């Protein structure tokens, strides 16, 4: 496995983890209505979106390698 493929795999794994954390935080917020879970969910969604953007930029940039 090349370094480029490993990097893309790690980015994809990080997106899944961030989405899982966002879903978990949403579930916890529905149970307790604690603001820290709402903030955690929003931050995790933002991180997931940022990772998708970064993965796209990285793939486009390293396409010719």
Silhouette:
elongated
Rounded average pLDDT: 96
What string gives the helices and strands in order?
HH
- Outline the low-pLDDT stretches: none
Q: Biggest sheet, open or closed, and with what strands and sense?
A: none
How many individual β-strands?
Answer: 0
Helix content: over 70%
Beta-strand content estimate: under 5%
Number of helices: 2
User: Termini distance?
Assistant: 14 Å
Fold blueprint:
Layout (H helix, E strand, L loop, with lengths): L2 H30 L2 H27 L4
Structural key phrases:
elongated; mainly alpha; 65 residues; 2 helices
Summary, kept brief:
With 65 residues, the protein is mainly α.
What does this structure look like?
88% of the residues lie in helices and 0% in strands. It is mostly helical.
């Amino acid at each position: 496995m090349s370094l480029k493929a490993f990097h893309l795999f790690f980015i994809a794994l990080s997106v899944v983890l961030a989405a899982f954390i966002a879903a978990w935080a949403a579930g916890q917020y529905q149970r307790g209505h604690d603001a820290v879970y709402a903030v955690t969910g929003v931050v995790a969604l933002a991180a997931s979106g940022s990772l998708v953007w970064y993965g796209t930029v990285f793939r486009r940039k390293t396409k010719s390698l």
